[in-house]
Protein 1
Amino acid sequence: MSTTLTRESSRAQQAWQLLESLSDPEIPVITLRELGILRDVREGAQGLEVVITPTYSGCPAMGQIEDDVKAALATAGLQATVVTQLAPAWTTDWMTEAAKDKLRAYGIAPPHACASEKSGGANVVQFAARGSKPPVVHCPQCGSSNTTETSHFGSTACKALYRCLDCMEPFDYFKPY
Amino acid sequence: MKAPVDYLLHLADNALILGQRNAEWCGHGPILEEDIALSNNSLDLIGQARLLYQHAAEQIGDGATEDTLAYFRDVPDFKNYTLCELPHMPLMSATAQGDRDFAMTIVRNFLYSSLMVLVWDQLQNSKDAQLAAIAAKSLKEVRYHLRHSRDWLVRMGDGTDVSHAKAQTALDQLLPYTQEFWTASPQESAALANGTGIDMAALQSHWNLIVDEALQEATLQRPAAGGFVPTGKQGVHSEHLGFVLAEMQSLARQHPGATW
């Protein structure tokens, strides 16, 4: 019994190591684990299970991520079921500091901590009210705080478009979610 | 505990049909940023619809999938609010062509998002754990949709004479359709009874607050209440839904089971 357990957990450990190399298809500088998409690797009733969670509901990368996970495990002869789990809902607060630094170096301003409460729909009304001050987003190129939002929505669902008023470079801001 | 299938379909159909409508702007946005914003909005809505259809399909069994639910049901099977299926243009008969009116798009997204921040917030406590999980994700997304549409509502309402007039016309035409939000359909009553749904009528005063505050800031007048109450969520739709489905479903019906 104990030998079985040891073998199983070492299999999961091996899988973790293999999956460590996988990066997000749209943001190749950070790994799925750092982003918080890769939630767990465990022994299930049907064998090895890899648990992933989507960022946004409509994230088109989920299919690709599932394929990438299976392909990475297959290189070591491992097979796994990929389980998509929605709760707890993914949040940018799970992103590690190291991942935020990598994002910045890549030219994407990392997300602020989530201001929105878990509950309460009304806070969004104040959020958008005139005269309210959104948190300062620093330019990932020159570090300036003199930036402005060009569009709430950017090149992918998780990003907004910003522009630096000092170095004049446009850049992406990873939205708090 | 599972939410009634028809209740899940009601929530999913709202998201799918509005997502399909907003996707009509893809490649045609008034400016590039809005093209991207509305496409992102659609992506979120269609993503929410997929999660809800997958959840419903598991309960239906018998070969049902998210695709059979989206592509192989007909008009009377759809349970979305009539508001979601209307074209982006001042109302006219279905076969008439008109230009897409951005004000209609914004006002509709504002009215719907103002409702859904409240609905998803409450549904986080649904006794259907999967529905609660979908609600928690959708709430984060709809907050951005509300922020976006409210921002534009104020900009247009408190903007030029032309933008104000367009926003007011859109509001006058669309607001009466929201009366459907507050009357309980059989599926909503069933969901409320088994603890998986919510009491929609109880949300009305909070929704009014969100809407009235924004309209005041936008210097828009709220049209008088009353009149016809639409019945889309009970499967009795306007003539417009058939045209939406014809476009959305034609590929899947022509090539059933096609993959790429």
Note: The CA atoms of residues 79 and 233 of chain B lie 4 Å apart.
Protein 2
Amino acid sequence: MLSIAFLKSSIIAMLGLFLALSLLIFTRTDLSWSMSRILWILFGVLVFIIPTPFLIPGKPLAQWGVLTISYEGVETASAIFFRCLAVSTLALAMIGSATLYDLIRGARGLGLSGKISSIFWLSIRHLDLLSHEFKRMRVALRARGFKMNSGLGSYKQLAKLSANLLVRALDRSERVGLAIRARGFQGNFTSLYQAKTTWRDTCFFLAMLSFATLLLGLDFWITQ
Amino acid sequence: MNAPIIKILKLSHSYANGTKSLELIDINIIEGESVAIIGPNGAGKTSLFLCIAGLVSFTATEFEVSGINALQGNNKTLLPKKAALLFQDSDDQLFCPTVEEDVAFGPLNQGLGIFEVKQRVELALAKVGLLEKREKVPHQLSGGEKRRVALAGLLAMNPDILLLDEPSQFLDHRSRRALINILNENTHTKLIATHDFELALETCTRAIILDQGKIFADGSAKTIFSDASLLNNHGMEVPYSQKLNP
């Protein structure tokens, strides 16, 4: 991810995107799940990409009145576009191919502190509980005839729902906190299965390192 | 007679807003006893359990649980190892991605080695009959299974005392029966806070009535559960089985 973030050439960034997509397929990540998220990222990135060709000065490619699209601007915009997509795809390949618990376990194995791992894990668990609580409350509202519309009443009801959700969340977090302490938790993330490096992990790491070096080397060669 | 495993004198506890939940209560529990703690909602049953498990602040003149004097130094932090608490809502208690990870959570926090933890997990899951569900996600289990996983989590910690807060709440008949069988096969000292008097009659030999933070009666379960006036005075009723066979 870091090597792709440093790429300057749009062609090499595109190659990086191709490699990231290959990795997404190789890790057997759910493609429809990934694509829906990539589309959202794409929309977010476009906000920054669209004005870039007009803002960076250079050799004119096209001109409409006072608006000029520069060659350098298009090159920079394409590079940003491919880099963002490639980095997002790599992140999705990582998140989509393992559970969050496995990722935290892996991060813990790589030396992330027990307290940070615990905070991360408990936050995820808490968000999950909040979403369940929210769904239950919405069902309860619907069961009593509430229909969401664009009227002020709906938004007031939604505000009350959110406030209630926060109170319930606090209540539940206190109970979960007690339950964790009741089982001897003292602030350190522990797991039954410790992450261990296997020969496959080493091979994968070396392959990724080679790709990263290749991309950076090609990028350096092209931009010089 | 055996020495008490729980010896509490003049225990008081208040909520953060100052409301008293327990007021100067005395309790002695003998090792191996199964005791039902009964009383209306808000009587202080859960607060009592939280105090025994060392999870909340309290005051007492004597507070000894399984040989640990909780009033001395930082001893209160040792209580969860001795008295394991089953919460009313299993969803509060299950927070790991798989059943076996959840059951292992307590023993891992006790600093045990992985081999021993795995052995304990296997034994605890076998005791509650859920060995085949070890790889499952706890939140996708039925209510009864969740309760059994939560119980396995306690058993894996190898505590001296089990504190069970409304263990049969939300359980269907089959799950409730399975739970009663597990409790009866278990030799731990058990304190069971419950509104399910039939469960209490099947699993406990002694009962304590707690109301408004005070103890009003302490005696044999059969005697207390058949005393209609005593139960009525505290907003409870004689269970059906006792009405049929007084």
Note: Chain A is about 75% helix and 5% strand.
